[in-house]
Specification:
The complex is a heterodimer. By secondary structure, chain A is an alpha/beta fold. Chain A contains seven helices and seven strands; from the N terminus they run H-H-E-E-H-E-E-E-E-H-E-H-H-H. Chain A has helices at 8-13, 21-35, 59-68, 155-166, 197-201, 205-208, 219-222, and strands at 39-45, 49-54, 74-82, 117-125, 130-138, 144-146, 169-171. Chain B has a three-stranded antiparallel β-sheet. Chain B contains 15 helices and eight strands. By secondary structure, chain B is of the alpha+beta class. Classes of the chains: A alpha/beta, B alpha+beta.
């Protein structure tokens, strides 16, 4: 299913200058104009990149605006982030000891956020050579957003992957079969509360059965900077 | 229908159409055919289910996931320097090129830059991986279309490149040579003269492939006008690399973004082709291999002196932040979205691999083609299974 791209978007983008911070501010400005309240937050890192956060309701409209107004016709990727710190740390706990206390406050990244799960995508303007990273908060109680398939046909597999790995639903995507795992698989492996099973079955050897090297190995910590 | 002349081909198509009509009259059912998981055209284990009406594909669905290794999850329990060992194995034919964007993303977050000599050597090894990867593609292309000879040439000449990579990094397939802040080591003695000779050989290899394959009538009739992907569809699906440039989109991340690498210091050309068919995709790859040998030659001439490692702490902690870096890998755009929480390891790494997007177009492009063309199209889209499944 491929929607033909309109020519109006490309004529708009001809006014944009070479990539620079002025252009990045301009992108945010244009998105605010076309989405109104849909744009929640944004971040322009000078000389680096631009992040825009939209509300979950405006997710599909944001895709349309990026494609037609900003001229980002090239679909790069779509995925999700679980901002909850992993209750298992880096999977290196000693199983004989009680699990250590961990900070479980959720801190979102660039362009802020209010929910544990965020969906994010990146699209590129191949004519003017810039890209935009767009994010949206996913409500915790009902993790569903509109599908991007009708905007970018390539989002199909990426949404299937995000559904399988994070358990996010995509309204309008009628083929959310698993890509990698068997259909009977329970859980969503990329969520932070899903343990890395390999580290549960066999504890991290760096903790439990390290053999002391002859001659001592205490120089690692004391040397500091090389 | 490999070597039919045009007139014969037309009569063949007419016969097919007659068959199809007969099928409708007889209400025969279509056939479902499995291509793969083990098939020379699949470079690993990709299974493609096609539903046929006579000789024509009416529906196709790639079934990936036979090689899913969960690298995105595994990166979360690794430290930053340990991640390169994993991501080496994504596109296993051009391993070094996988390491570069991740290291660049980490360096961006830490706000350090590799010294010029390291940037140069990185670019040289990056282009050598491209030659090793795409060189094998050119040989493999022949095998998939029924020609045995090219693959022997490809394996012979790829060996020269792998020897170079091994001499410089210690690993033929998985160098694991890139470090945050520079490289593990400097180049060994005599490597530069050796590389220049090999680059000469590889330009001869490209000429051989040009003669053997691209000038061949059978080869052309198997590829010309088959599997045409228009530019707007290619962009919507996020096709990248030679697949996108063969559709006439002039987009190359080596040229079109600023990275601390050495591509902008040398003179080279981005090749595009207006046709968007299988032939265009293969032709662009051949030109890119030639272009890569020229880049390596020029970089070797201008190699700066100095250290190959910037000053970095012994224990690497990456400051909190998010960074996206992508590079033009042998297969297309390969990028890493790295989220750090100021810890020893990354909080989340999204791996955007080229083949995943390149293969997601298969259901679209295979609709309506004939069975032998399925193989041509898969061969020309060129994917590595590890790059799809990650």
């Amino acid at each position: 299913m491929v929607v033909p791209l309109s020519d109006t978007g490309s004529s708009d983008t001809e006014t944009l200058a070479l990539p620079g911070d002025g252009l990045r501010e301009g992108i945010v400005q244009r998105l605010r104009e076309s989405l109104g309240e849909g744009v929640v937050d944004s971040l322009v890192k000078p000389g680096d990149d631009v992040w825009v956060r939209v509300s979950a309701d405006a997710w599909r409209a944001a895709g349309m605006a990026l494609r037609d107004v900003i001229g980002c016709e090239y679909f790069c990727f779509l995925s999700a982030i679980d901002w909850m710190p992993s209750p298992y740390g880096r999977g290196e706990d000693d199983p004989t000891q009680p699990p250590p206390e961990r900070d479980d406050t959720i801190r979102q990244g660039y362009a802020g956020g209010e929910t544990r799960m965020q969906i994010f995508a990146r699209v590129t303007n191949v004519k003017d050579h810039f890209g935009v990273t767009i994010k949206a908060d996913i409500p915790d109680e009902q993790p569903v957003v509109d599908s991007w398939i009708s905007v970018y046909a390539g989002a199909n597999w990426h949404e299937r992957e995000a559904h399988e790995m994070f358990g996010i639903g995509f309204a309008g995507h009628n083929d959310l079969r698993n890509m990698y795992l068997p259909m009977e698989f329970e859980g969503h492996p990329m969520r932070k509360d899903f343990p890395l099973l390999a580290r549960i079955v066999k504890p991290w050897p760096g903790i439990v059965d390290v053999e002391q090297l002859p001659g001592g190995d205490d120089d690692e910590e004391t040397e500091g900077e090389a | 229908m490999t070597d039919l002349a045009d007139r014969q081909k037309l009569s063949y198509i007419a016969a097919q159409a007659a068959d199809a009509r007969l099928n409708v009259e007889l209400e025969t059912e279509g056939m479902t055919l499995n291509i793969g998981p083990q098939h020379p055209a699949t470079h690993g284990t990709l299974r493609i289910i096609v539903r046929l009406d006579g000789e024509q594909v009416v529906w196709a669905e790639p079934s990936a996931g036979y090689m899913h290794r969960g690298y995105e999850k595994l990166t979360e329990v690794r430290t930053f320097p340990q991640v390169t060992t994993l991501i080496n194995r994504i596109d296993w034919l051009g391993s070094f090129a996988n390491e570069v964007p991740f290291i660049l993303a980490a360096e961006k977050l830490m706000d350090i830059e590799a010294p010029p000599r390291a940037q140069w050597i990185r670019t040289i090894l990056f282009e050598l991986s491209r030659i090793a990867n795409v060189g094998l593609f050119l040989g493999d292309l022949g095998v998939q279309l029924g020609a045995i000879t090219p693959v022997f040439f490809a394996f012979r000449d790829r060996e020269y490149v792998l020897n170079l990579i091994e001499a410089a990094t210690g690993g033929r397939f998985h160098p694991n040579f890139d470090r945050i802040g520079g490289l593990k080591d400097d180049l060994p003695a005599g490597w530069i003269t050796e590389t220049k000779q090999v680059m000469k050989k590889l330009r001869m290899f490209c000429d051989e492939m040009d003669d053997l394959l691209f000038g061949n009538e059978i080869f052309q009739s198997r590829l010309r006008g088959i599997g045409v992907i228009p530019a707007d569809v290619a962009k919507q699906y996020g096709l990248s690399g030679a697949n996108l440039r063969a559709s006439g989109v002039d987009w190359d991340l080596r040229r079109d973004q600023t990275l601390p690498m050495a591509w902008d210091k040398v003179d080279w050309k981005v090749w595009t082709h207006p046709d968007g068919d299988c032939f265009a995709r293969c032709w662009v790859r051949l030109q890119e291999t030639r272009e890569a040998t020229k880049i390596v030659d020029q970089l070797l001439d201008t190699l700066p002196s100095g250290s190959v490692m910037a000053k970095v702490p012994r224990i690497i902690k990456v400051p909190e932040g998010e960074a996206w870096v992508s590079t033009e890998n042998p297969l297309g755009e390969m990028g890493y979205y790295v989220v750090s929480k100021g810890d020893l390891g990354p909080f989340r790494v999204k791996i955007r691999s080229a083949s995943f997007n390149n293969i997601s177009i298969v259901p679209w492009v295979l609709r309506g083609v004939y069975v032998p063309d399925v193989i041509s199209i898969l061969a020309s889209l060129y994917f590595i299974l590890g790059d799809i499944d990650r």
